[in-house]
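User: These chains co-purify. Model them together.
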Amino acid sequence: MGSFLVRRLLHTLAVMAVAVTLGFLLVHLAPGDAMTGDMTKAGRTSDASARLRARAGLDLPLSTQYLRFVRGAVRGDLGRSLTTEQPVARILAAALRNSLVLAAAGLSAAIALGLAIGSAQGWYPERRVFRWLGRALTTLYAIPEFVLAIALIGALAYAAGWFPVGGMTDPVTSLLGSPSERLVDRLRHLFLPALTLGLGWGAAVARQQRAALAGAVGADFVRTARAKGRSDLAALLRHALPATIAPVIAVVGLMIPAMVGGAFIIEVVFAWPGLAVEVVHAVAARDVPVVSGAILVIALLVALSSLLVDLLIHAADPRYRVVPTREA
Amino acid sequence: MRLSTSPGLAAALCTSLGLAACGSPASDDARSARSSVLTIATAVDADALIPPLVTTTQGKQAVDMLFDVLAAPKAPLTTIGDGGFGPQLATRWQWAPDSLSIAFSIDPRARWHDGKPVRASDVRFSFALYTDPTVASMHASDFTGIDSVTVRDSLTAVVWWHQRHPEQFFQIAYNLTVMPEHLLGAVPRDSLLQSAFAEHPIGSGRYRFTQWNRQRDLMFEADTGNYRGAPGASRLVWVVAADPTAASLSVLAGQADVLEFLRGDAFTKARQSTQVHAVEYPSLDYAYLLFNHQRTVGGSRQLFADHALRVAITEAIDRAAVVTNALDSLGRVALGPFTRATDVVDTTMRQIAFDTAAAARTLDSLGWTRDPADGLRHRAGRTLAFKLLLPASSATRQRVGVLLQSQLKALGIGMEIDAVESQVFGARLAKGDFDAALNIWRTDPSPASIRQVWATQRADAVEANFGHYSNPAFDAAVDSAASTFDPGRRRALYRRAYQSIVDDAAAVWLFETRNFAAINARVSPVGMRADAWWAALPNWRVAEAGTP
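Assistant: Joint model of the two components:
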């Protein structure tokens, strides 16, 4: 276990180093920079632009800029944004918190939807309504997330007016509303992006759950539970579901790293102020410290969540713990 | 068998519908506060709230609400003399006999939002801040020609010029936003954005800062005790949407009150809506096909330096058809490097007409003969073809590019569309790395600002003459127009300058946009100026919820 952990940690560090270096280079290789590329800066004299570039260190050799960034990152200092001059760590911390809220809500929606529909399909395979629900979910899974998001905005936000078109809060309510009003406001803003994520990923959970449960419907322990007088629902919830949940946990575990990066489009479509929105703005503004910092954070999250999944599987499945022996 | 899972599903639906049914949650306080809130939907957040550091329209909107200028322009804006201005921070002003200085008397009632009085020294400080090279403000060049600002007494600031010119008053009154010295004076000039003031600015305007969640929303509240009177709306909120489409949806759905530009489908929906009005206001934006006059194109050195060729290309383009097809009623054919909102414009100016026969004759006479094999024109083994640089993010310019391509091809001119990301577009324009570009420029209210884009380049000037255009006759006419005090002569000289650049076919003047804002029916807008539709925002009347 110890050597496995060391190997995985080294692997994680290597992945992060490559991701951060590539990100840093690609942003620098793109034409334009934070001081000159944007047309709105056309009113500056070349002297003023040069002064700003020097202040930001953009006139230094690329290798020097890279080493500066790495040295700072090792110390936990990601520098300051070139456009707002705020500390990058502060910008990313706020954005990351929002991203994690959305990811958690999306994951919860996916698990709830997937487990409910998958269980119903597996438990009642003859019910047409559940078959149709499963197909509907699979169809939604096949639709690109941004298309689904736009459709939901059109139907539930614009046409019905039930939910906000985007954003994370209503500024007036967040400033003047009571705690309960603020909570409801946040949930209203969270609902559509979380539902979009949940519908997409829920299909994967449902398929896994249906397959697992279908095998358990006729199993001895379920028949025994029913013979003992357990209700249908109790047999499902207390006996069949716990016995078939392991594969679903594995699927959900694999979703976590995907979710960290996969919610990007949804954040942008719904103007959810998470990492995606920060990165999109930073790339457009050639705000190198923010882009590099964001890549570092995302790489770290993906690597750590992958590591966590590996550790869980390693701990749960004895076959992973078998030490290979060299045959003579 | 019963549906054992249906209660769960029902609960989930009830929860979601329950959230929806809550609508806009509001206690009495919040409901009352919300009733006269004016919400502006935008796709771009403000970039800064310290005036010299603002570079975006959204930032300018915000600082114009927070801070004051010395004198307020009236609509329509005229830039010559002081007749087009009314008092704002200055109650009156007095010209020196030689017109080389103006003494501004500060309103003694004016207070910063922290309660401190506004003083003449704040005017002096603000000028110093704008023009300090360390600050590197892109607005520093607006003050070229001003020598200094001095303080005669605590309520009198005197602005001094090196030499007199017709736009002296406009130059200082329009461009100098006054900031508090007691809060910013001690902040290092090279790190203004890192100061506490940048996060919580304090001005003297009719709105005071409340909160700013970057990339989400920006909120101001009414300064009810302001020396210029309380504004109409109790709060101003800018809500940042994902993109222009989402911003327009939020206004059409009644979740925001104002959107500054309506485009495409949203314009049609707003015209059909009873809740939202499409309100037109004058525009200072014009679009043009910019030639790179120094570029070697397709092996031909400085291809577009040839006046006859530029005229032929202009004649080959049916600009009216381009505007109709790409913008429908949201644009007009441009007359030149200005818009109809410019105060010295003459709409009867001579134009280069659409005439494909004349264009073909000119091209033939220049030796560009058509090869039936590829349909393009060639001369001395070189093909008459070029690349058109445009930003991929602009659907309108993409459409215009395709229309131009088709029209030019009919005359045997090859044009390849080079659509790039907007930052790359800006960077390549600035470097002169293009054959031709489809650009949109927002003019300054001062007609003299045309020099920034079209006058012969000077090493010490702000540079936006991306195509390296040079026309001494135009330069001379604009210089004369900018320095004359006689309104009639000024108009005639600008007309001469405009006619010179149009006749010279410096670019193909394609269209000027017609600006329509989407405004909720409960809002009564006033004073929407071409240069700043928001200028009179504090005077907009907002009907409380339920009030017609």
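The mean pLDDT of chain A is 81.
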